Please model this.
Amino acid sequence: MPASGYELQDYKAIMYRTHTCGALRAEHIGQEVTICGWVDRIRNQGGLVFVNLRDRYGITQTAFAPEAGEDLLELARGLKMEYVVQVTGKVCARPVGQANPDMATGEIEVRPTQMTLLNKCNQPPVYPSIPELPSEDVRLQYRYLDLRRTAMQDALMLRHRMIKTLRDYTDAHGFIEVETPMLGRSTPEGARDYLVPSRVHPGKYYALPQSPQLYKQLLMIAGYDRYVQLARCFRDEDLRADRQPEFTQLDIEMSFVEMEDILTFMDGMIADLAKKILGLDLQLPLSRMDYDEAMERYGSDKPDLRFGMEIIDLTEFAKTVDFQVFRGPAEAGNRVRAIVVPQCADKYSRKAIDELTTYVKEDFKAKGLVWFKVENGDIASPTAKKFTDEEHKKILEITGAKDGDMILVVADTFDITCAALDGLRRRLAKELKLYDPKSMSFSWIVSFPMFEWNEEDNKWDAKHHPFTMPQPAELDLLDTAPEKVHAVAYDLVINGFEAGGGTVRIHDTNLQAKIFKLLNIDDQTAHERFGFLLDALKFGAPPHAGIALGVDRLVMLFGGYDNIRDVIAFPKTARATDLMTGAPGVVDDKQLDELSIQNTRKEEN
Amino acid sequence: MPASGYELQDYKAIMYRTHTCGALRAEHIGQEVTICGWVDRIRNQGGLVFVNLRDRYGITQTAFAPEAGEDLLELARGLKMEYVVQVTGKVCARPVGQANPDMATGEIEVRPTQMTLLNKCNQPPVYPSIPELPSEDVRLQYRYLDLRRTAMQDALMLRHRMIKTLRDYTDAHGFIEVETPMLGRSTPEGARDYLVPSRVHPGKYYALPQSPQLYKQLLMIAGYDRYVQLARCFRDEDLRADRQPEFTQLDIEMSFVEMEDILTFMDGMIADLAKKILGLDLQLPLSRMDYDEAMERYGSDKPDLRFGMEIIDLTEFAKTVDFQVFRGPAEAGNRVRAIVVPQCADKYSRKAIDELTTYVKEDFKAKGLVWFKVENGDIASPTAKKFTDEEHKKILEITGAKDGDMILVVADTFDITCAALDGLRRRLAKELKLYDPKSMSFSWIVSFPMFEWNEEDNKWDAKHHPFTMPQPAELDLLDTAPEKVHAVAYDLVINGFEAGGGTVRIHDTNLQAKIFKLLNIDDQTAHERFGFLLDALKFGAPPHAGIALGVDRLVMLFGGYDNIRDVIAFPKTARATDLMTGAPGVVDDKQLDELSIQNTRKEEN
Model:
């Protein structure tokens, strides 16, 4: 679409308008045109009334002069903001000195000869032309008004263009888009399913898909070779700030491929997207890092690589000191790790550091935070006296910290040191503006652990899903040390967020059976949940692999939005409510009767 | 995608194959290649073993000769149909006289030097290479095998290409694709909703959308101007042969438009689709016919215009005859109408005509069927003697029937004459092959009645939906004769099927209130159901209109398929069951507890 807006010239029938509010330029001067739009602004100036009309494509200034007649002028004076009008008039050059170079239509104005009021507008709680916003709840309740704002229209246009670009790229590369069912079977694994009672089969339920995982594997077995879908998915989880009960994923699966094929294809797709949407030239291949390395260097499997501040290990050093806060954990097999926050010693007061300590204690269950500021080539801190001069030197040597830097140390289990230092790293980089918020960092984290230990149920869980292929070189470890087995799994990380991930799938029934056994899923359970997939694997399943990207997240990251709700037309709140429609709502008993269900409890009001 | 299949040359990482099974041509002779695929056919011939490998892109013959070594030959002899293999070898010209011009890869064969068995296959209930099919139930249960058949792969490829073409066209014309929620509010109107119990709000339910109608109107109010979505929609109806509980519609809405704009735009879109998919040049504008005229001429609001056989009215004539079967209904205000079936008198025996009589009685509740054959310029029939010679002449004159034609007459209420003659017309045209089954007919039926009388509830119902604009010239009739008011509504009819339809919407709150009153929807009910839309109309709603096309139906018609399930990857049966996954299924009590619901009845097994 041209930036000037759509010209409506491609078909003959033009009832309401000849041009959009974004289309008129100097070249149209002298033409009679008809435009429609919302009143964005009104100014009475001398005998003139200026009315700016707005639509999706832009804003055009109309100027009602006395020559147009008193009736028309009167009508213009009666307009209010957000009224909808149709104006016919002549395109004129703006008077000398009044052109507006910031406006695409700023060289011209329309001098109306006719105006029709198409619709009025009550006083709206959100004005597109007024930057001050009401609370998000009001914006969500009057979403149709909030969506008039340029920022929201930009977000949805960006979303449209990104999705179109992804579809064009996959189509050009031989992918076929296949729509998979929304009314599927419940396979309680991972998150909670949304259920849909069946009327025709009382006591039975469909489930809305958490992902089209099983269907896309079946499509590979069916020989479709390259599948893509922009798939709506559902998870009935207690929502975090950046989650929605329904979300869209770009879902991809390929046959006769290994991880290398998927990553190389995806690199090309992401580079195409970055180029077309952001004008960015990404260097390919995108960087790749093993999960284990990412945890060591950044404490996270989705490290933000827009800045450094890597984690430094002090464990071996800690074993040599008297300071028990270090030595205790180090000798107990835990870890002592640090980050060096550059050139900030003067920016963090004792009070500010206390706040950081509270943060790592409360958010990550760390036992505490040890800190050193570097001054005149030595360390300064309340705990400085617990170390010898030699040890001071050693700390500076290992961390490489310089005058003005601050060293933050966490001594704890590996997991807690990871979480706390990752949290500190992100928080401090943001506070200290260590990176350009417009910069973008893309990387792959690969080779995740295959299993994670479920403390609660005392068993191994699949870190991805139970159809994930283990690293071929580690197959022998399945029997002896499952915790050491890595999966052929890969996540795309953008700016420290997981933008998506995937795995190579198991296409061998024997290996699949072995994994189920390890996951403590017995034959009957496996058959009940995934019987059709297990059957299908026996009928000539090709080697295959896939990936899914979170589209909402991707749009948010590409657009630089902070809130995922800003890139969704009609989002729900953290309580999964649609404030505009009031969904979910009470339904008629007759509807429940037909579904052979009844409520066991009503919501407390 | 080139017809020869995707060449996999666009990225470097090639693990499993260098070419697809559809890619190799004479130009590749001499190259060493690796291909992967399913064993489509095996022939032992002399000392040679020919194995055809199949993937989505085509079939390539591999020829295992003694020179390849006994081990490889032995491996080839052990292959079974649908095994998955990887073959490396040299591309060779087929021996003289053995090229197969019917096969895209027919000039070459691959002489293997290496083969890896990637997976075995149990004996499948459906073979892609064997034309005989098991029952549809078996095909649905093993859908992943059924989907291997070329006919099914063609259907899904056609679907993909049609959807891509529609998306490209709308994008090029300034439409923005917006995803609307699946978890919405139940607005019991028309068909039954699928409900989704809310866990967070016990006793409350989401509903899956029957269409994004309200959301797309809200997007117009929000100023999005041109909206499109390929939207999944849900209706919990008792299924007819060509319905599915979930279906996909191409959903469109435009602002500042009238019917003329929508039809002209859609004409261009359909012409583009017909050209790109079928190579057809449609003459534009597509023909248009008023609903009233369609009912008079064809007895249907979705007439099949691939053939003539229009309905002829005999009511005035019937009033003048003694024959009470004609005169009675004619004088009672009912209708006597006929079709002339050309050149078939010798093809329909008395017994065959008796069968037609049973058909109109049983399927359409007609009281009977009167028939005349035209012989030697006169009519012949068991009832011929009930008419005078003059009347015989008159019948021939009015109907224009000629020697060899057959006249079929139904005397009944207008509705029954419509239904019965429409049924006869379709059935006989098919039996007599009056049209080329590959021909396509596109037309618009416009100006539908606004209301239809609901006998059961003794009230007016909206024929489309309650937001439909009445014809402006007939607004006065709303108070006096609502049955005479027509809507600004339009249906796209292809080959006698409704492919989609739409309306101009009401954007005026006062008119909307008046329509609700006529439909006996009181303020409170209106507010409960559509409150957010009614509110939104008060905040500057632009004039707007839209349309939705049934994508499954459209693909079926373009592809010439008889069954809508053949253009859906994973369809459900008429009992809304997925025979492959077993959905809907029984769920854990724990899941129901969390949703605060319980079953009131279990399905009889």
Remarks:
- DSSP finds 17 helices and 23 strands in chain A.
- Chain A has three domains: 26-119, 143-282+544-605, 307-434.
- The longest strand of chain A covers residues 32-45.
